[in-house]
Design brief:
Blueprint: H1 7-11, H2 15-33, E1 40-51, E2 61-77, E3 82-87, E4 93-96, H3 109-122, E5 130-136, H4 146-162, H5 169-183, H6 191-198, E6 201-205, E7 211-214, E8 224-230, H7 239-255, H8 266-271, H9 273-280, H10 283-308, H11 311-329, H12 342-354, E9 361-364, E10 372-378, H13 382-393, E11 398-401, E12 409-411
Parallel strand pairs: 3-5
Antiparallel strand pairs: 1-2, 1-12, 2-5, 2-6, 3-4, 6-7, 8-10, 8-11, 9-10
Amino acid sequence: MGNYGDLGKVYGKDAAEAEKRFWHLNESFAAEYGDSEGLSYFTAPGRTEIIGNHTDHNGGKVIAGSISLDTIGAARESSSEVIEIVSEGYKKVEVNISRLDEVPKENGTRSLVAGIVEAAKSMGYEVHGFRAYVTTNVIAAAGVSSSASFEMLICTMISHFFNDDRIPVTDYAKIGQYSENHFWNKSSGLMDQMACAYGGPILLDFKGDISVEPIPFAFSDYGYEMVIINTGKGHADLSAGYSAMPLEMKAVAHELGGERLCDTSKEELLGHLNEIDEKLGNDRAILRALHFFNETERVEKMAEAVNKKDFDTILRLMKDSGDSSYKLLQNIYTNENWKEQKIALALALSEEFLSRSGKGICRVHGGGLAGVIQTVLPKEELSGYVDFMAEYFGRENIYPMNIRLTGATVLS
């Protein structure tokens, strides 16, 4: 059996189940590559956004956390300049480090890996060949950052094998963002990557260089639980919709003389609203800009509430965040496919259940348009809520979830 390190530090009470997953990695690596000698083992969590929906890409603030679902990998260096990766359930991908220009864009895992390599090398880091076998229990294409989790796993391998574990997690995030922006044509921010890489609940500020501050927070401290519900429609074909959100916000910023909305203010927007409306001819862009300013302010207020242990205010701000995402940001469903509104339906059903006790909140989670919602409710209501929602979305799509304290790391 492999040396997986102290799994208890990462997985807590779930360490025994995690050991089974790593033993499976060991066997699968040997089956794919011939043996499992000299392997290193890695983990990178998915993430939850607690508040700060779609603010990172315009220099706003977010409170986020890594979650108990993760992507894990077994890997070792090779003597070639080729990276070989098998992601369980998919065909093996190979990326020749010296021929990155031959890798097509928007071509799945191979494109993401090539983008990671190009970004890491451009930042002065060493990258050479290795072999890896990867598996995940992070919900795919559903708003808990399965792609960022994978990216941060690969960054951790590169840091461990070739850079003495010295690449800072802020550079992990920039490397992952570069890959998505330039090899996947997705205008992602940095929140997903930072939350997966850093670990624990964190306050992020994206106005300048990335500022990250751990915060003392857990729903369980107040007798509450967090639940993620996968509504059944993935994100995979919605890149244009996600890219429109930062681009429309930046269009408003440009009219106000800034590069991003963080370079301007809500007062400036309100003072020039009519002329911006006339110039852009896009009311939605203005609404999304208003969401940005109000949401960033909510994050600041929530950080204060966390420090004061004011849980009533925390819940109210999270609810307000969800309402703003619905009304102003408008990332609950697409206009192109308006008959499909699984996020809206899941929110409506959750509110129906929560109204019975008058406790708890629900909100769209992550990118929106499809994917998942987030519900926070008293622990004693959890089983009833799961039973209620399982009738509509299936028990296999309901994930009671904890915030884990460990980010992307090699196990030792």
